[in-house]
From TrEMBL:
<dbReference type="InterPro" id="IPR050428">
    <property type="entry name" value="TCS_sensor_his_kinase"/>
</dbReference>
<dbReference type="InterPro" id="IPR003661">
    <property type="entry name" value="HisK_dim/P_dom"/>
</dbReference>
<keyword id="KW-0418">Kinase</keyword>
<feature type="domain" description="HAMP">
    <location>
        <begin position="124"/>
        <end position="176"/>
    </location>
</feature>
<dbReference type="InterPro" id="IPR003594">
    <property type="entry name" value="HATPase_dom"/>
</dbReference>
<feature type="domain" description="Histidine kinase">
    <location>
        <begin position="184"/>
        <end position="396"/>
    </location>
</feature>
<dbReference type="InterPro" id="IPR003660">
    <property type="entry name" value="HAMP_dom"/>
</dbReference>
<dbReference type="GO" id="GO:0005886">
    <property type="term" value="C:plasma membrane"/>
</dbReference>
<dbReference type="InterPro" id="IPR036097">
    <property type="entry name" value="HisK_dim/P_sf"/>
</dbReference>
<dbReference type="InterPro" id="IPR004358">
    <property type="entry name" value="Sig_transdc_His_kin-like_C"/>
</dbReference>
<dbReference type="InterPro" id="IPR005467">
    <property type="entry name" value="His_kinase_dom"/>
</dbReference>
<protein>
    <recommendedName>
        <fullName>histidine kinase</fullName>
        <ecNumber>2.7.13.3</ecNumber>
    </recommendedName>
</protein>
<dbReference type="InterPro" id="IPR036890">
    <property type="entry name" value="HATPase_C_sf"/>
</dbReference>
<keyword id="KW-0067">ATP-binding</keyword>
<keyword id="KW-0472">Membrane</keyword>
<keyword id="KW-1133">Transmembrane helix</keyword>
<keyword id="KW-0597">Phosphoprotein</keyword>
């Protein structure tokens, strides 16, 4: 294309500016060669390199010709009385084309990997955020209904997170409404039941001996209902969200000693040997009453389901940055197929012994509130009995 432009420029007097006798061999190999013929002259009128005779009769326009054993690309412009020929070695032209190609290609070759790397980085970063959100969502349950964090989240995900957070809020409200209803109902039932119990106590001396046994049955029924209502209240409280201002540093061994002391009279009456061995003094960050309630439920189960003359052991241990409290009894244990259900509300594996079936649900709710663990298993040491254990994170 450059050859054609040069040829047209040379139509006027510009061609005359070429020296009539240029210095021989002075032209660099890469330069273009110009030859101007005139009808009245046999030899070129002007030529930048007379030693390289271009074919005067080459076709008008672009053509490729051999000159002195080399391939030349020639543009021939016939403008009587002149024939203007502008030429360049084909090899030089190829080289120029290659250079032009390289010049346009290298920025692309450099940019494409850079853009790919940038895209990969952005995608990986976004997915990292998504993975983090995924584990946050996985941690959500009735005991942990906190909103998902919006800080550092890609702007495209914000509407999605917002609607999840609104859903969590609605869920938390309806769970709280249900919990409050149970708590209020249990609380309201407690007063008339206490009055009933008082009236029964007062009536006792007026009951004729022949009716005493049936009357005692009635009193036991009232006491059972009272126990059930008290457990329902404890469960509603355990389900309530954590009151962080009541959290203190609690020494686990103190709570264990208190729980043992509390059941000691019943244990002695039933000739059950209860003791706390292998005690470690370890601290947890909890509401002390919560730890007490959880432990008392396990100890009360061990005493209640162990026959007279049995043995109940408590031990504490620090392992994996957790404090574990184990209550081991010498009772009948629980059938393996029923074990997975013992933490369900109102589930009872033993119909002969009285209970509300809520004790272990309370333990589970308390443990969940502190991110701890609770488990029940049959003893694996050849003797019958249950190993009930709860674990809480050790206070730093
Ligand atoms: N140490 C244990 N040995 C044998 N069975 C047990 C033991 N602990 C729990 N269980 C069984 O698991 C069931 C559920 O226990 P849970 O403490 O939740 O309720 P409960 O003891 O029946 O009633 P509550 O504790 O509310 O008075 C019990 O009914 C009992 O059958
Ligand atoms: Mg119980």
């Amino acid at each position: 294309m450059r050859l054609e432009q040069v040829a047209y420029r040379l139509r006027g007097s510009l061609g005359d500016a070429i020296p009539a006798i240029p210095a021989r061999g002075s032209q660099p190999a890469r330069d273009i060669l110009i030859t101007i013929w005139r009808d009245d002259l046999e030899t070129p009128y002007r030529s930048t390199e007379p030693s390289l005779p271009l074919p005067r009769d080459a076709p008008s326009g672009f053509s490729s010709e051999m000159v002195n054993g080399e391939q030349w690309r020639i543009y021939t412009l016939r403008e009587p009385p002149k024939v203007i020929q502008v030429a360049q070695r084909s090899s030089v032209r190829h080289e120029l084309v290659q250079q032009a190609a390289v010049n346009t290609l290298w920025p692309i070759l450099v940019l494409v990997p850079l853009v790919c790397a940038a895209v990969m980085l952005v995608v990986r970063f976004s997915f990292l955020q998504l993975n983090r959100l995924g584990s946050e969502v996985q941690a959500i349950d009735a005991a942990h209904l906190q909103a998902l964090p919006t800080r550092g989240v890609p702007i495209e995900l914000l509407p999605f997170i917002d609607s999840i957070n609104r859903m969590i809020e609605r869920l938390a409200r309806s769970i709280e409404t249900e919990r409050k209803f149970i708590s209020d109902a249990a609380h309201e039932l407690r007063t008339p039941l206490t009055a009933l119990q008082l009236q029964a106590d007062n009536l006792q001396r007026d009951i004729v001996p022949s009716n005493q046994e049936r009357f005692q049955e009635l009193r036991r029924g009232i006491a059972r209902s009272g126990g059930m209502i008290a457990q329902m209240l404890r469960l509603a409280r355990a389900d309530a969200s954590l009151q962080t201002d009541a959290v203190t540093l609690v020494d686990v061994s103190d709570v264990v000693v208190d729980a043992v002391a509390e059941v000691l009279p019943i244990a002695m009456k039933r000739n059950i040997d209860i003791g706390a061995e292998e005690m470690t003094s370890a601290k947890v960050r909890m509401v002390e009453a919560d730890l007490g309630i959880a432990l008392r439920n396990l100890v009360s189960n061990a005493i209640r389901y162990t026959p007279d003359g049995g043995k109940v052991d408590l031990r504490t241990e620090v392992r994996d940055n957790m404090v574990w409290i184990e209550v081991v009894d010498s009772g009948p244990g629980i059938a393996e197929d029923l074990l997975p259900r013992v933490f369900d509300r109102f589930f009872r594996a033993n119909a002969e012994i009285e209970g509300s079936g809520l004790g272990l649900s309370i333990v589970k709710a308390i443990v969940a509130k502190y991110g701890g663990t609770a488990s029940l298993r049959n003893r694996g040491d050849g003797k019958s009995g249950i190993v009930a254990s709860i674990g809480f994170r050790l206070a730093a």
